[in-house]
Design a protein that fits this description.
The chain has 300 residues and is of the alpha/beta class. It has 10 helices and 13 strands. The strands form 4 sheets. Strands 3-4-5-8-10-13 form a 6-stranded mixed β-sheet, with helices on both faces. Strand 4, helix 1 and strand 5 form a beta-alpha-beta unit. Helix 3 packs across helix 4, helix 4 packs across helix 5 and helix 8 runs antiparallel to helix 9. The radius of gyration is 20 Å and the shape is globular. The two termini are 21 Å apart. The relative contact order is 0.13.
Length: 300
């Protein structure tokens, strides 16, 4: 099974395209654990671990991020993934020290400079944003389905100052999230955007107290395990297709229908039977038993 779905139209690759392959200036760093992985029940966490550099990503870190995403996306006991930074910052973009000594090479398949930015996992992704989430780090935050931002955190296209373009999905995802005009405000000026404004724009989903983003994001991710997972993942796929890949309204509606119909037999009939038996009445979300939830999978 192919666990990574490429958002093909916005990120179409050209085989002859040459890009910068960023060679680390620190010879031993590629051997370090640059990405910390952990499982908390049905939630996986992926932490960028370069706190001395505000979690700037270099070539080795990008590779480890892809490996971590792939590992957890294939783990059937994981229902959602939380991306965060170690040491008080989410990610301050690409390592400009490494970029300053770059040599030219061809970009590996399904791999952006920041790592997983050109792929779509089947599991929901949530960003826990603390400190700086800027430049390429901002693009990693945009990669996620939801963003939990601390009230002291800052996002922005800070790479505007140094002539580093957005090539990890920033110009694709930001307009889709907040609209073209607001996206141009951030992309062209490079200005910072703080939590209050980001929440008003719909750029983030939750604003939380300083130091609590990771815990709040894990709790949010954990809340998703209660739902039938194939239905949740199918609706997520349909939303992504409609936003980024559909050629027309008719195309989007057809994909939604074709993608959703198989779920009726797998999960919907049983769910309807549970409702008839009394579960979930009056909008209650605490159901006694849900088929194919992560709890069910973990108990096997």
């Amino acid at each position: 099974m192919n666990y990574f779905l490429t958002i093909s139209r916005p990120f179409q690759r050209h085989s002859a395209l040459l890009i910068k392959r960023f060679t680390s200036t620190c010879g031993n760093e590629s051997k370090d654990v640059l990405v910390l992985k952990q499982k908390i029940g049905a939630v996986a966490t992926i932490g960028i671990n370069r706190p001395a550099k505000r979690n700037c990503v270099n070539y080795a870190t990008a590779d480890q991020l892809v490996q971590a995403f792939e590992e957890f996306d294939q783990d059937e006991s994981v229902c959602a993934i939380v991306l965060h930074g170690i040491g008080g910052n989410f990610c301050a973009g690409y390592d400009l020290q490494e970029l300053s000594t770059a040599n030219t090479s061809i970009l590996p398949d399904k791999r952006g400079p920041m790592g997983p930015s050109r792929i779509l996992t089947k599991k929901p992704l949530i960003a826990a944003i603390s400190g700086y989430a800027v430049a390429g780090g901002f693009e990693l935050a945009l990669l996620c389905d939801m963003r939990v931002m601390e009230d002291t955190a800052v996002m922005g296209v800070f790479c505007r100052r140094f002539g580093v373009p957005l090539i990890d999905g920033g110009t694709v995802r930001l307009p889709a999230l907040v609209g073209f005009s607001r996206a141009m405000d951030l992309i062209l000026t490079g200005r910072p955007i703080k939590a209050k404004e980001a929440l008003e724009w719909g750029l983030v989903n939750r604003v939380v107290s300083c130091g609590t983003a990771l815990g709040q994001a894990v709790n949010l991710a954990d809340s998703l395990k209660r739902f039938p997972q194939e239905c949740l993942q199918a609706d997520r796929r349909s939303a992504y297709y409609a936003t980024y890949s559909a050629t027309s309204l008719e195309d989007a509606l057809k994909y939604e229908f074709d993608n959703g119909v198989p779920i009726l037999e797998k999960e919907s009939v049983h769910g309807a039977q549970k409702f008839v038996e009394g579960a979930g009445h009056h909008g209650k979300f605490q159901l006694q038993e849900i088929p194919e939830s992560c709890d069910t999978k973990n108990s096997n």
